[in-house]
Automatic annotation (TrEMBL):
The gene is khpA. This is RNA-binding protein KhpA. One of its GO terms (cellular component) is cytoplasm. The lineage of its organism: Bacteria, Bacillati, Bacillota, Bacilli, Bacillales. It comes from Psychrobacillus glaciei. It is found in: Cytoplasm. The keyword Hydrolase does not apply. CDD domains: KH-II_YlqC-like. A probable RNA chaperone. Forms a complex with KhpB which binds to cellular RNA and controls its expression. Plays a role in peptidoglycan (PG) homeostasis and cell length regulation. Belongs to the KhpA RNA-binding protein family. Forms a complex with KhpB. One of its GO terms (biological process) is cell wall organization. Signal peptide: none annotated. Gene3D superfamilies: 3.30.300.20.
Amino acid sequence: MKQLIEAIVKPLVDYPDKVQIEKEESVNRIVYKLSVHPEDMGKVIGKQGRVAKAIRTIVYSAAGSHQKKKTYVDILD
């Protein structure tokens, strides 16, 4: 899942080397925390959050078939 998020986000940003994804796993859920360079934040979120929503939709659908746990994607400031 981490590789999928990187494959989606890195082409969108100006600083692909600053893309970091951390995984936190608990009993019933997995949270992927995405952080990017401050100048790239707007590109990852998009107008009215459309890009962020699209990223989450793709990850949720991919995770639904792979994992039995609820999966979340958080974009950190």
